[in-house]
Amino acid sequence: MAQWDAFISYARSASTLEAQRLQTAIQTFAKPWYRLRMVRIFRDDSSMSANPALWSSIEQGLREARYLVVLLSQAAARSEYVANEIAWWLRHKDAASILLVHDDGTLAWDRQRNDFTANSDCVPAPLRGAFREEPRWTDLSWFDAPGSAGPADPRFAEKVADLAATIRGIPRDELVGDDVAQHKRAWRLAKVAIGALSLLLIASVVASIVAIAQRNQVQRQATALLARQLAVTADSLLGRDLRRAQLLAVQAYRTEANPDTRAALLRATLASPALRRFVSFAAPISALSASSDGRFVAVGLDNGEVHSWDVATAAPVARLTLAHRVLAVGISDDGQVVAAVDGTSTQVATAGGVSSLVTPAGASPELVAVNPAGTGIVICSDTATDRPVTLVDLAKRSQRTLTNTVEFGPYALQFVGNDEVVLSNPGAQRRTFPGFGLVQSGNFNYGNHETASRISGDGRFAAGTNNAAEVPVWSTMAERDPPARYAFVPMANATASALNHDGTVVAVADATGIHLATVQQVDSPAGFGHSVDPPRLFQGTTQVNPDGLVFLGTTNRFVAASGADLSLWNPDSVGRGSTSTAIDLPSGSMAAGSPSVALSSDGTTMAIRDGDRARLLVTAAPGRSGNLSLDYTPQAGYLAVPVWLDASTVLQVAAGSDGGTPGSALPDLPNGVVGWALGRPDQQVLAVATAPDAASVLVVGEAGHIERRDPRTGVVQSATQVIAPSDDKKWFDAAVDQSTATVALTPAFGSELVVVDAATGARRFTVAQPGDTVSRSLFADGSLWVRYNSGVIERRDPTTGALQRRLAARLSATGTGELAHASGVLAIPTDQGVTLYDTSSDATLGSIETPQGRDDRRRGSTLSADGSALVTVYESNGEPGSTGLAVTTTLAADELVGVACRTSGGSLTAADWTALIGPDVPADLTCR
After folding, report:
1. What is the CATH code for 451-573?
2. Which of 847, 840, 924 is nearest to 891 (CA)?
3. How much is the pLDDT for 368?
4. What InterPro entries does the entry give (predicted)?
């Protein structure tokens, strides 16, 4: 009789694809190559024979299964079959063996009622009240979300590992290790094959040519296998160890340059754009502090070493070495003065050298702070009977120790300016320096099981975490209850937290990454107990050391210590491989479209048409020198997307301000611009494309006029018209193929794409999908790419319209959906940013996130002619003083290697390779 390890319950109408992928992934996770599957999963479509007794077959599967996996969705909540399956399970088995997978809809737990919340619309009725305590569920709601890569997304393997570990009864870490081990075993098998073929080469001189060929083939296969293993391992580390992920991706590309390793390299450098760089040290980081202006960081290590780091540079500087593990460090604003304590001694490094400071006999110095000017130091020590405080005036070369001033050992010690110091303990004190007179005090006190955060830079606020989602923030100089502020941070096993300079932002590090949340006033509408914006999650490093988070100065930049690695983060960064510049691109009118951008052939200069289609802005692309700069508003009707005739000449076609003479030059043309009007006012120009011989341009208007004109004069060479099959007879979008012989037209009101002959207007074929509407199209790499409003993108034969491929992920865009292409790369704008697709391998390369604060801004993107860079321009937000933004992101593999190596803080070590890849360590692991 068949036995099942798990039974998948799901709604066919909504979750069939997810159920299929989940079944396959769980059955084959950490599977040796010679095994068909590791576990047996019952899913109705794949597991039932042709049995007319449907429920009997399902009931038998339920009876024989050890676990019930329920895919929670809005459809599942309404499904009679799902409800019956769950009800049967609860009658005959225990709810503890039910594994929940969140597919879609709203899902939350009400801790007061100890049940799912009333607005959890994806929970089948039998599950309500079924659990004695809050169950854990696996989140797959992102699986078919816009921009998701589905089963190719590294998050999918992480979620499958969670489920497979429970079903198989194996610890998750061990199971994930087994999965990676399969790659290692395959590599060892390849080496055995190489050795065997080498022996054959020696044994048979007659067959030497054949043997050499065979050996080379196996070596190529082994190299390809190693490159794939490196790329897969790099992807698996993106969310938790981005430093080593980048280094492994570089090694993968160096081992074999192919679309897969290039994609891994691109994903690694695009991941977590807020992460700026890593710095690695010889021992775990035990103490961390920053100057008040945020320019310098002091780092203490387990081995007693103390370093200072100018965050604008790449390398830290060794300053002093203590005998024991460093407990605390402090640093001045100029980075010259660094002080450190290790529980037995205190040392200070200045421009003049290193010296020791005297603390009371028998005292253990535990905390130290340096004022911004570097003229004062405060040391808090501990003895059997007292907590003495030592005040050091470096300017006067004097020090004194006070006793009986601090009742309990302080949790935090820091200067606020040069003349005041704050001690935070059960209560808080603000005192003068060097007099140490009491200025202000408070009764603030941490609660049970709360771990103290770093207090705000101004010394006014402190927070504590105990793994609850609501983080209380107290005023240090007031009563403890109620807290002055709150932040909402869902967390799991938090290890460190910190407040920014004024207590308005809190950072919390936990097992999933680093959360940044806005701190709310308790009485604000978005305060404690109310709905608040979710915190931003920054991934790329986990296991942040205790007290290993520090904000830098008055910015929201911060550093995080994880083991021996220090990482620098800037929440407003556009990415490690990106360069940005402010541009004058105001927000267009409500009826306006998105801005468009075109790059010169050398990739140095960008021509931007604003969203109102009235202005041409030409300037250097970010990070490039540029060879033309101008700002032109011709008052000549709607402007077309600009076209570069050469590296320093832009063609600007306009509809015209009146009937005029077709082809008449635009007024007051600046140097570097060729421009003429069509003589069709109030009509938009949908496309302008240069012929391969550059002797003509094809111009397509919204009324269906297709004209071939002289690019310099605008004189018409030939013309035809295609009337749109819609009430207003207008077209919304047009795409021209590389030969300018074919045009694909999208109607303003209609669902089909019409492909016509550019010379005659004769219809060649149409493309349509029932229930969907074509939004954009593009001719590229011998195919016609069709984008639908639903997010579906198809690759079709450009001569017949036959479907060649449908992209796996749905890539939706509520704003511009204009596709761009160059050198085998397709740029697909989405609501989250831009997804890059390799047209030769038909694989997603990666995604570029929209910069912070630009999510709702209209934008336009294009690729350089050689596909080495993506340029995106964003409108301003319309507020006074706001500007537009232009961002250049490098896609060139050699530049990506440089970015990864510069920001990873070193190279892979032999220990890294052995732990992640296997025992055969290459002789050269240098990242370069």
Report:
1. 2.130.10.10
2. 847
3. 97
4. Quinoprotein_ADH-like_sf, ThsB__TIR-like_domain, TIR_dom, Toll_tir_struct_dom_sf, WD40/YVTN_repeat-like_dom_sf
